[in-house]
Amino acid sequence: QVQLVESGGGVVQPGRSLRLSCAAAGFTFSTYAMNWVRQAPGKGLEWLAVISYDGINKYYADSVKGRFTISRDNSKNTLYVQMNRLRAEDTAVYYCARGKGGNYFFADHWGQGTLVTVSS
Amino acid sequence: DIVMTQSPDSLAVSLGERATINCKSSQSVLYSSDNKNYFAWYQQKPGQPPKLLIYWASTRESGVPDRFSGSGSGTDFTLTISSLQAEDVAVYYCQQYYGSSWTFGQGTKVEIK
User: Which residues neighbour A13 within 8 Å (Cβ) at sequence distance 6 or greater?
Assistant: First the structure.
Protein backbone atom coordinates (compact mmCIF):
# COMPACT_ATOMS: atom_id res chain seq x y z
CA GLN A 1 0.00 0.00 0.00
CA VAL A 2 1.03 3.59 -0.47
CA GLN A 3 3.15 4.94 2.36
CA LEU A 4 4.51 8.44 2.84
CA VAL A 5 6.63 9.08 5.92
CA GLU A 6 7.86 12.56 6.73
CA SER A 7 10.88 13.22 8.92
CA GLY A 8 13.24 16.01 9.89
CA GLY A 9 10.93 18.16 11.96
CA GLY A 10 11.84 19.63 15.32
CA VAL A 11 12.55 22.86 17.12
CA VAL A 12 14.62 25.41 15.23
CA GLN A 13 15.55 29.00 15.97
CA PRO A 14 14.24 31.86 13.85
CA GLY A 15 16.48 32.57 10.88
CA ARG A 16 17.89 29.05 10.77
CA SER A 17 17.36 26.34 8.18
CA LEU A 18 15.81 22.89 8.19
CA ARG A 19 15.37 20.16 5.61
CA LEU A 20 12.39 17.84 5.70
CA SER A 21 12.23 14.48 3.97
CA CYS A 22 9.35 12.32 2.82
CA ALA A 23 10.10 8.66 2.17
CA ALA A 24 7.72 7.03 -0.27
CA ALA A 25 6.87 3.36 -0.67
CA GLY A 26 4.23 1.16 -2.24
CA PHE A 27 4.05 2.94 -5.59
CA THR A 28 6.26 4.02 -8.47
CA PHE A 29 7.47 7.27 -6.93
CA SER A 30 9.20 8.46 -10.10
CA THR A 31 5.90 8.72 -11.98
CA TYR A 32 4.06 10.99 -9.52
CA ALA A 33 4.08 14.71 -8.87
CA MET A 34 4.49 15.44 -5.17
CA ASN A 35 3.43 18.30 -2.93
CA TRP A 36 4.20 19.85 0.44
CA VAL A 37 1.30 21.20 2.48
CA ARG A 38 1.43 22.60 6.00
CA GLN A 39 -0.99 23.21 8.83
CA ALA A 40 -0.28 25.66 11.63
CA PRO A 41 -1.55 24.56 15.07
CA GLY A 42 -5.33 24.76 15.13
CA LYS A 43 -5.44 26.31 11.66
CA GLY A 44 -6.30 25.27 8.11
CA LEU A 45 -4.31 23.77 5.28
CA GLU A 46 -1.77 25.76 3.28
CA TRP A 47 -0.26 24.43 0.07
CA LEU A 48 3.44 25.20 -0.23
CA ALA A 49 4.95 23.63 -3.32
CA VAL A 50 4.70 20.97 -6.00
CA ILE A 51 7.35 19.17 -8.03
CA SER A 52 6.81 17.24 -11.24
CA TYR A 53 7.50 13.52 -11.45
CA ASP A 54 10.94 14.13 -13.01
CA GLY A 55 11.90 17.03 -10.78
CA ILE A 56 12.08 19.51 -13.64
CA ASN A 57 9.05 21.65 -12.87
CA LYS A 58 8.58 23.24 -9.48
CA TYR A 59 5.96 25.70 -8.30
CA TYR A 60 5.64 27.54 -5.01
CA ALA A 61 3.16 29.47 -2.94
CA ASP A 62 4.02 33.15 -2.72
CA SER A 63 4.38 32.81 1.06
CA VAL A 64 7.47 30.60 0.72
CA LYS A 65 8.87 31.48 -2.69
CA GLY A 66 12.57 32.29 -2.40
CA ARG A 67 12.88 30.69 1.07
CA PHE A 68 11.75 27.09 0.48
CA THR A 69 13.06 24.71 -2.17
CA ILE A 70 11.33 21.49 -3.12
CA SER A 71 13.37 18.65 -4.60
CA ARG A 72 13.30 14.91 -5.05
CA ASP A 73 15.61 11.94 -5.48
CA ASN A 74 13.81 9.31 -7.49
CA SER A 75 16.63 6.82 -6.92
CA LYS A 76 15.89 7.03 -3.18
CA ASN A 77 12.10 7.43 -3.47
CA THR A 78 12.36 10.54 -1.37
CA LEU A 79 10.91 14.04 -1.51
CA TYR A 80 12.54 16.99 0.23
CA VAL A 81 11.87 20.56 1.20
CA GLN A 82 14.71 22.83 2.19
CA MET A 83 13.43 25.62 4.42
CA ASN A 84 15.63 28.67 4.94
CA ARG A 85 15.31 31.85 6.99
CA LEU A 86 12.62 30.27 9.12
CA ARG A 87 10.11 32.47 10.93
CA ALA A 88 7.78 31.89 13.84
CA GLU A 89 4.87 31.76 11.41
CA ASP A 90 6.42 28.72 9.72
CA THR A 91 5.54 26.69 12.82
CA ALA A 92 3.27 23.93 11.54
CA VAL A 93 2.81 20.28 10.77
CA TYR A 94 4.29 19.65 7.34
CA TYR A 95 2.68 17.02 5.13
CA CYS A 96 3.86 15.50 1.90
CA ALA A 97 1.09 14.50 -0.48
CA ARG A 98 1.02 12.52 -3.69
CA GLY A 99 -0.56 14.01 -6.77
CA LYS A 100 -3.53 11.90 -7.79
CA GLY A 101 -2.95 10.12 -11.08
CA GLY A 102 0.53 11.58 -11.16
CA ASN A 103 -0.88 15.02 -11.85
CA TYR A 104 -0.67 18.31 -9.98
CA PHE A 105 -4.37 18.75 -9.41
CA PHE A 106 -5.35 16.89 -6.22
CA ALA A 107 -3.70 14.74 -3.55
CA ASP A 108 -4.84 11.17 -3.02
CA HIS A 109 -2.34 10.09 -0.33
CA TRP A 110 -0.85 12.06 2.53
CA GLY A 111 1.80 11.33 5.09
CA GLN A 112 1.17 11.66 8.82
CA GLY A 113 3.16 14.88 8.93
CA THR A 114 6.17 16.18 10.84
CA LEU A 115 6.00 19.09 13.27
CA VAL A 116 8.30 22.06 12.82
CA THR A 117 8.47 24.57 15.66
CA VAL A 118 10.30 27.82 15.05
CA SER A 119 11.16 29.35 18.37
CA SER A 120 14.06 30.90 20.20
CA ASP B 1 -4.57 34.17 -6.08
CA ILE B 2 -7.91 32.43 -6.01
CA VAL B 3 -9.65 32.73 -2.64
CA MET B 4 -11.87 29.89 -1.46
CA THR B 5 -14.58 30.76 1.07
CA GLN B 6 -16.48 28.03 2.86
CA SER B 7 -19.77 28.34 4.67
CA PRO B 8 -20.65 27.77 7.36
CA ASP B 9 -17.52 27.67 9.52
CA SER B 10 -19.18 24.98 11.62
CA LEU B 11 -22.40 23.06 11.77
CA ALA B 12 -24.05 20.55 14.07
CA VAL B 13 -26.30 17.94 12.54
CA SER B 14 -28.28 15.10 14.10
CA LEU B 15 -27.26 11.55 13.30
CA GLY B 16 -28.94 10.42 10.10
CA GLU B 17 -29.69 13.95 8.95
CA ARG B 18 -28.25 15.79 5.97
CA ALA B 19 -25.20 18.03 6.21
CA THR B 20 -24.43 20.59 3.53
CA ILE B 21 -21.21 22.57 3.15
CA ASN B 22 -20.68 25.28 0.58
CA CYS B 23 -17.53 26.62 -1.02
CA LYS B 24 -17.25 29.68 -3.21
CA SER B 25 -14.25 30.45 -5.38
CA SER B 26 -13.21 34.01 -6.19
CA GLN B 27 -12.90 33.02 -9.83
CA SER B 28 -14.03 30.13 -11.96
CA VAL B 29 -12.12 26.85 -11.68
CA LEU B 30 -13.88 25.41 -14.71
CA TYR B 31 -11.37 24.97 -17.51
CA SER B 32 -12.97 25.44 -20.91
CA SER B 33 -10.28 23.28 -22.55
CA ASP B 34 -11.62 20.10 -20.96
CA ASN B 35 -14.84 21.28 -19.29
CA LYS B 36 -13.60 20.08 -15.90
CA ASN B 37 -13.79 21.79 -12.54
CA TYR B 38 -10.39 21.60 -10.88
CA PHE B 39 -11.95 21.34 -7.45
CA ALA B 40 -11.85 18.83 -4.61
CA TRP B 41 -13.12 18.14 -1.10
CA TYR B 42 -11.07 16.67 1.75
CA GLN B 43 -12.00 15.33 5.17
CA GLN B 44 -9.66 15.72 8.12
CA LYS B 45 -10.30 13.95 11.40
CA PRO B 46 -8.49 15.03 14.58
CA GLY B 47 -4.85 13.99 14.62
CA GLN B 48 -4.99 12.66 11.08
CA PRO B 49 -3.89 13.95 7.68
CA PRO B 50 -6.51 15.04 5.18
CA LYS B 51 -8.29 12.43 3.10
CA LEU B 52 -9.47 13.01 -0.45
CA LEU B 53 -13.25 12.59 -0.71
CA ILE B 54 -14.31 14.18 -4.01
CA TYR B 55 -12.38 15.44 -7.04
CA TRP B 56 -13.39 17.03 -10.33
CA ALA B 57 -16.10 18.56 -8.11
CA SER B 58 -18.33 15.49 -8.17
CA THR B 59 -16.24 12.31 -8.59
CA ARG B 60 -16.10 10.24 -5.44
CA GLU B 61 -12.69 8.86 -4.53
CA SER B 62 -12.42 5.08 -4.37
CA GLY B 63 -13.64 3.71 -1.05
CA VAL B 64 -15.56 6.85 -0.04
CA PRO B 65 -19.11 6.02 1.10
CA ASP B 66 -21.84 7.06 -1.29
CA ARG B 67 -23.47 9.25 1.35
CA PHE B 68 -20.83 11.81 0.35
CA SER B 69 -21.57 13.71 -2.84
CA GLY B 70 -20.23 16.82 -4.51
CA SER B 71 -21.94 19.22 -6.86
CA GLY B 72 -21.49 22.61 -8.44
CA SER B 73 -19.49 24.22 -11.21
CA GLY B 74 -17.52 27.35 -11.95
CA THR B 75 -17.39 29.23 -8.66
CA ASP B 76 -19.99 27.57 -6.42
CA PHE B 77 -19.69 24.10 -4.99
CA THR B 78 -21.43 21.96 -2.40
CA LEU B 79 -20.49 18.90 -0.37
CA THR B 80 -23.47 16.94 0.91
CA ILE B 81 -23.44 14.18 3.49
CA SER B 82 -26.83 12.60 2.96
CA SER B 83 -27.12 10.82 6.30
CA LEU B 84 -24.57 11.89 8.89
CA GLN B 85 -22.78 9.13 10.74
CA ALA B 86 -20.73 9.44 13.91
CA GLU B 87 -17.53 8.74 11.98
CA ASP B 88 -18.17 11.77 9.76
CA VAL B 89 -17.27 14.17 12.56
CA ALA B 90 -14.35 16.06 11.03
CA VAL B 91 -13.23 19.28 9.40
CA TYR B 92 -13.94 19.47 5.69
CA TYR B 93 -11.84 21.53 3.27
CA CYS B 94 -12.41 22.53 -0.31
CA GLN B 95 -9.43 22.92 -2.63
CA GLN B 96 -8.92 24.33 -6.09
CA TYR B 97 -6.12 23.94 -8.59
CA TYR B 98 -5.30 26.88 -10.83
CA GLY B 99 -2.14 28.11 -12.45
CA SER B 100 0.01 25.32 -11.01
CA SER B 101 -0.98 26.13 -7.44
CA TRP B 102 -3.62 25.13 -4.91
CA THR B 103 -5.67 27.06 -2.43
CA PHE B 104 -7.85 25.64 0.31
CA GLY B 105 -10.94 26.95 1.98
CA GLN B 106 -10.72 27.78 5.67
CA GLY B 107 -12.46 24.57 6.67
CA THR B 108 -15.90 23.63 8.03
CA LYS B 109 -16.19 21.71 11.27
CA VAL B 110 -18.99 19.15 11.33
CA GLU B 111 -20.27 17.94 14.70
CA ILE B 112 -23.13 15.83 16.00
CA LYS B 113 -26.10 17.70 17.43
Answer: A86, A118, A119, A120
